[in-house]
Amino acid sequence: MRAVIMHSPGNVSVVDRPDPRIEQPTDAVIRLAATCICGSDLWPYRGANEVDEAPMGHEYVGYVEEVGPDVRTVKVGDFVVGSFMASDNTCEICAAGYQSRCVNVHPMGGIGTQAEYARIPMADGTLVATPAPPEADLLPSYLAASDVLGTGWFAADAAEVRPGKTVAVVGDGAVGLLGVLAAREMGADRIIAMSRHADRQELARAFGATDIVAERGREGVAAVKELTGGLGAHSVVEAVGTQESMMQAVRATRPGGHVGFVGVSHGVELPGDKLFYSAVHLHGGPAPVRRYLPDLMRRIAAREIDPGRVFDLSLPLEQAAEGYRAMDRREAIKVMLTV
Amino acid sequence: MRAVIMHSPGNVSVVDRPDPRIEQPTDAVIRLAATCICGSDLWPYRGANEVDEAPMGHEYVGYVEEVGPDVRTVKVGDFVVGSFMASDNTCEICAAGYQSRCVNVHPMGGIGTQAEYARIPMADGTLVATPAPPEADLLPSYLAASDVLGTGWFAADAAEVRPGKTVAVVGDGAVGLLGVLAAREMGADRIIAMSRHADRQELARAFGATDIVAERGREGVAAVKELTGGLGAHSVVEAVGTQESMMQAVRATRPGGHVGFVGVSHGVELPGDKLFYSAVHLHGGPAPVRRYLPDLMRRIAAREIDPGRVFDLSLPLEQAAEGYRAMDRREAIKVMLTV
């Protein structure tokens, strides 16, 4: 099959790799309908993480091609969505809603879903099938559910967004923008999107942002406080993962408020005293997307939400390298790769 | 009046200071019945915080001596308990239960309650009166409510202790021990006290600990995991405030679990990536003791709880210096000063 490999930072191409096959009786193999490039794929692309001939991609929608003998809940031909973390969905941690930390967790990034086919471990626990094949125009939204929508949703949930609350969102990538959408769906009273880019501001407004703050760091915090009677937001979504963005999120939150952080942490050191006196709640990490998938897929099928709008560039899988370049240069918010 | 002054690290004495008086119409002046020495008073005593001729003490029970013209809810002669943070109890932050971060907050430590009398700002918001003068043997328990009980209670609440959960408590000072008591009252299924001292282990068991772990750091975490099927505790109370204790708390918590941290943070830097992948909830800070006072005082009056047992040494105010020495040398868990 054809599949994306990152040879070294900045060096991506599509190459021939062996077709995946059933390795465990609980595996499935899917034929990708679409996959995409994640903001987190840019960390190794930019040299911030080590990378050496790595398969890429952890987001996926597609059709079940083959199932192992122990697979019960999906069958050949089903259209399925799964999380970027394969999980058994039965262990005590999964049962508590933390499938991304399943005791048997298998990161899909190690398998690589920017490819024609992918093996899905623990298919019953990982995959959710639609009742019928999806309408073609919903494909991007289902693909978003695989990671960025689920991650933005988890961030808003971790930030305890509720009706009547004011929410601030730090980060205007796909996850931050979908954090805005999630906050709207959860009934937030006011949603402050922190963004300096006109196109992303526009999408944030379309997803439900009521206010835009272009400033960053201390100025950004001051602007959020000015919008909230000096107190700070009730809930803040952090969707970047840097020291500046984390501290911006903590400082923009009122005492007793909630920070939901999902930006993959890079070089962050949280000063304990600042955290102590902030009196905020802090929760985050790799989003347990699987927890939300059935609900999110229902909302997509019902056309209640349109998360697929974050894909502002669609390319064939063979042009993956161009997709990486476009995201790296911020020429695209998020790139879908059709297979 | 007589009052404790810390002249410099390790140098405490009782001196004459001017009697406090009503400064604002919302002030009260109380005559102390008892006060005490806090674990946090040991930070400056040991030179970890700067100190220069500072009044000391922020825990207090006593009788209202005088009230300003705008005070409505307490009257002269009432027996009252208040938090270590004076608060208006009406602002938006107080209304959300975070009185220790009240927009008009006034730290009682700046006033100094290791004294015969103390001015209490915002008396209506800060003080809670008992319906009748308390029975003498309950005095220590009411005094504990002023900080260490309320702080241990908040930590257990922040750690979302619930029936059926397993709780671990890092720190065997008064706050940690009362975190054990709080966890018992909140219905925890299993309570693991982390302590190396026989006397404190004994009190932890009396307060409801079901298991004792004497190991610290990585060995302590391994011991908690062994007691919890490899997963870690659902809820962990952190009551020390060092890098080691914070990381011990985070690592001893299962993914999706909750850390309630109340140890005043000293030199802590939380690595963002460790926090991210831990997937725990983190909440803490200066405890909003005022939120819990009415409930805690009712439980004390009904003799449902006996938090006063953390005072294993009682001295007259004049012997405060001896009390500091005893706590510094760990010869006493917590010292009550009678006035």
From TrEMBL, chains A, B:
UniProt keyword annotation of Ligase present: no
Keyword Translocase among UniProt keywords: no
Molecular function as annotated in GO: oxidoreductase activity; zinc ion binding
Enoyl reductase (ER) domain: residues covered: 7-337
InterPro entries in alphabetical order: ADH-like_C, ADH-like_N, ADH_Zn_CS, ER, GroES-like_sf, NAD(P)-bd_dom_sf
Cofactors demanded by this protein: Zn(2+)
Alphabetized UniProt keyword annotations: Metal-binding, Oxidoreductase, Zinc
CDD domains, sorted: FDH_like_ADH3 (cd08287)
PROSITE patterns: ADH_ZINC
Residues in coiled coil: none
Sequence similarity: Belongs to the zinc-containing alcohol dehydrogenase family.
Full protein name: Alcohol dehydrogenase zinc-binding domain-containing protein
